[in-house]
Structure formats: C-alpha cells, structure tokens
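#dry-run=false #mode=assembly
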Amino acid sequence: MHGLGAFFADPAVGTALLLGSIVASVSGAVGAFVVLRGQSFSGHALGDIGAAGASAAYLAGMEPLYGFLGVGLLSGLLMDRLGERASSRDLATGIVLSLMLGVGALFLYLLTERTNASGGTAAVLFGSIFTVDPSVTLPIALFSLLSSLLLALLYRPLLLSSLQPDVARARGVPVGAVGLLFMLAAAIAIEESALVAGALLSMALLIGPAAAALRLARHVGAAVLLSAGLAVLALVLGIFLAYESYFWPPVQHGWPVSFFIAALVLLEYLLARLWPQRAARRREEGAAA
Amino acid sequence: MSTAAIFPPGLFTYSFMQNAWLAGTAVAAVSALVGFFVVLRGAAFAAHAVPRASFAGAAGAVLVGGDTLVGLGVFSALSALGIASLGARRDQSRMTALVLMAALGLGALFLSASDAYAPEVYALLFGQIVGVSRADALGLVGLLALALIAVALLYRPLLWSSVAPDVAEARGVSRRRMDVLFLLLVALAATAAVPVVGALLSFSLMVAPAAAANRIARTPPQAMRIGLVVALVSVWLSLVLAYDTSLPVGFFVAAVTTLCYGLARIYSALRERRGALRTVKPA
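#status=ok
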C-alpha cells in the first residue's frame, strides 16, 4: 500500500473516478437490457465503432465526444433498420461494424499520415481512463442523464417487449419503436464509456456486470441497479489497482487499467455463476417460451 | 485513366506483390468457405470475436519472442473452444462477449508489457498485405488446403445442423459437436486472415461476401460459389486499389465487400417486388 491519501489527491485519479463512475453506472444499467435482449454483439460493436467517429472528429478538428456520439447514433440506427428480423440482427450488426471499421482504418491512417505520430492510433483504440480531458465532464454528465432518463421512460414497455414480444404487440406496445429508442439510449451510454475508458472497457462494463447481475437478482429491476453497482465497483477497484501497480514488478511503468477492470468484471461474473441458479433460470425459460 | 495508371509497373512483377496476390487469394478463399457457414448460422459475432481474441495471442507471442502465427492459432482455437464450451446452451452472444473481453484484457496486458512498436500493432489490427513473406504466403496456401479438406468432410452434416438443428440431431448429427467443429473452422480462417487483413477487418471478408451471396443465391452450393467469387474479386480489386493509392488495404476490403452486400440487398428487393407482381397477376 502506498497511501490512500496520495491516491485520492491525484487529480488524474479524481477525474478518472468521477467520469468513470458516471459512465460505468449508466453502462451497467443499459447493459442489463442489452444482455436480456441478446444484443451483446450490437453493444460490443457500438464501442468499437466509436474509434471511427473519434478519428473523423480529430481530422475535422472537432471535439472527439461528438464524433463518438454521432457515429454511434448513426450506427445504432442502421443496425436497427437493417436487422429487421431477430435472425438477421447479428448479421446486420456485422455488416455495419465492418463498414465502420473500414472507414475507421482509413481515418486512422490519414490521421497518422497527417500528424506523423502513431500515438494517436493507440489512444483512439485503447483509450486510457487516466488521460481523459476533464473539460468533457459536463457534457458527459448531461448525456448520461439523457440516456438514463430515456431508459427510465422506456422501462415498462421495454421490459415487456424484451421478455415477451408477442404479448407486448398484442397489448399495443410499439415494439419496433421501443427497440429503436432503446438502441439510441444504449448507443449514447456505450459511446461515452468508449470515449472515457476505451472500446475494450466499454464492452467489459456493458456486458460483464449485467451478465452477473441477471444471474443474481430476482427481478429485472433489481438486476438493472445491481449491474450498475457492480460496474462502478469493478471500475473503482480497477483504477485503484492500476494506480498501485506502478510500484509492482516486473515492469516499472504500471499495468494497464483495462486489464484490471476487465479481470475484475470477469471475476464478478464467475463468482455470480457459483450462486444458486433457480430464479434466473426460471425467468429466462419463461422468456424463451 | 490509362491502363498504366490502374495497373502500374510492379503490380504483378515485384516479388512482394506476388506474395500479396498469393496470400490475398488464399485468405479470400478460406474466408468465403467458412463465411458461408457463418452466415447460415447467423454467427457474425463469433466470426468477429475469434480473430479479435487471437490478437492477444499475437501480442503474447511478441512478448515471449515466439512466432506470431503460432500465437494467433493458439488463441483463436482457445477462444473458439471457450465460446463453444460456455455458450452451448442459451445465449451464445453473451458468452462470446465474455470470452472476447477476457482475451482483450490479456492483450492489453501483453501489449503494455512488451513495449511493441505502434506500427506493429497497427499492422496486426488493420493488416499489412505487402509485408507477407513467401514462406508466410505458402503457409496460407497450406491453411487453405486444410480448410478445403475440412469443408469437404463437414459440408453435409454442418449444413444440416445449421439449417435444421433438431432434425439433424434426430438423425445422429450432434449439434454440440457441430458447434465446436464450426467454431474451430472459424479459428482456422482467423489464423489465416489476421496477419494479412488484420484482426479488425478479417471478419468483413468472412461475413459480407457470404451475406451478399445468401441474398442472391437460390441453393446452398450456389451461395457458396457466389460468396467465393465476391470474396476473391473484392480482395483482388482491393489489392490493385491499395497499390495505386497506398491507402490501407483493409479499408478497401471493407468498402468493396459492403458495397457488394448493399447491391445484393437492392437486387433481392427488386426481385422480390417483381416476384410479388407476378404472383398477383394470375389471381
């Protein structure tokens, strides 16, 4: 231990903890529905796609946040419209992802050509939570609020159309519109965490805590809250371990924070698997029937 | 534009370009063969996750000073087995995400420990087709031969199990075994494709041409043939364009294959409309 005081006094750590907790809680909450609806691939793809928007924004001299958000919302819309049937949904996601990654490759290439520095590539792809510009805190907080408000408004129809789409349709729930709005709320949450924590962690915070929470909680509502809590827990512990690891062997430059958070999220999921399974299995079998 | 500008000197004669043609052709063929089953099973996430996860293997190989192709092979096979073992029952995409997450976390660790050059990382992610050696290209042709044998042996049971898993199971084709074998095929394609077109874009080649073919074709063998042609033409066209413009080849592969998919969607929509008109008339 090298002092909790020094840990909390470090301004980079303060920004990372604040921004990280905001995006982790929203990602965790949205993730519960992403996992419940079997949209893990779309969730992962939206995180990856952000890099294309970020590099485009760098090239245009814009704030990267709007590059992330713009390309994320556009891709979410495309995925939703192209994958009209559930069976073709992952394929549609794949097509959109491959197009966006191709465009992203071009932008990244132009970026390295123009700036003659390859550091930008790594920053866009692997983003480090310790290097986030604190000036984005306010817009990130506002967009997170928007995303969670949207989720709260959609909660009941979304729950019904995720678990029993036929019943939802019979009761007059606009299943298609609810799905699209949820995709947009998810895109905002995912792109923000991709900006703050990088594409890898945006997936880790979205899927891992949610998969664990859905195993533990008895109701979806409880799972949403638990998932947000587990995401924040993994993030805070991960940042702390990464900070401490500067003093660990064998390398003296610290271990990557992405590794710690991904490992902690995985640990949460594996521990949740040990939990007695009755409630979750009954619910999901009910959903499948 | 004159012919010399499109096909400048050296496109076919430089030995590094000859290697690129050989490697690109082998990779396109393997990807199209495996992609046929990927599209049939709607397994786009697995096709994306396995090559992405194998990136960690390459980073690990750089760290211990081993051969990157071995690292890619080991990690793609491990992640394929991980996805198959954990996700056989309900939601496979959740398990795929968790396996991918574990692999990417390890990749981040290896990368930070090895201090690899950024250009090397960029090449592994986005591909570097002009850097392929003759030995690598021949190795890829070997992988193509392996994939051809595997697909020839597995074609009927895998097709059955993908289209009608319950019927296939009833006739003694184990769904579980087919799942594992399919994912190992994806691992084989990933090992071949990642060094050439990169971890991020190798799945474009697996998914988009086969998805385009699936829209147009009327029978499975026809879909396989069309997918093969689309993948080969896309890769060849991308090689020429990348050589002309010196932009990354992965960009052209993604752009051309997505364009093919878009055209196939338009074509199938038009055909459906014409078909609908025809069926309305007699009534």
